[in-house]
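agent> Task received from the user: take the single chain below, predict its 3D structure, and emit structure tokens. No templates, no multimer pairing.
agent> Plan: (1) validate residues, (2) run structure prediction, (3) serialize to tokens, (4) report one or two observations.
agent> Step 1 OK, no nonstandard residues flagged.
tool_call: predict_structure(input=
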Amino acid sequence: MAFLFVLGTLVGILSPVFRRDTRLRAVILASGAAIVSVVAAGYLLHQDPRDGLATIRANQQFGRIVLASGLPTVVLALFSLRRAKLYWLAWGIHVAFSAWITAVLIWLKFFWHW
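)
tool_result: status=success, residues=114
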């Protein structure tokens, strides 16, 4: 699951590499955001009951945040097949979300002391 999350994030970030074909880069961005959204939905649907209630609640909140940024990215990327300007809005949402996730992971890895 973590591999798919990282893969979807990187695919979405690297989608502007395809400058000439605007439809291809929109589809690539939509597929990257869809992968992230499917992983988040998987986290929402399959909670481990052995975890505490606070952990389950935090995981559900995180899943909702991921879906709240992933689904608009997918929709805007698919709408950008007709209007190219929407692609950059979708890509901006995806990059901002990816930067937030990276900051959270760095914070948890290096600055969170138990």
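agent> Step 4: summary for the user.
The first helix runs from residue 2 to 13.
agent> Done.
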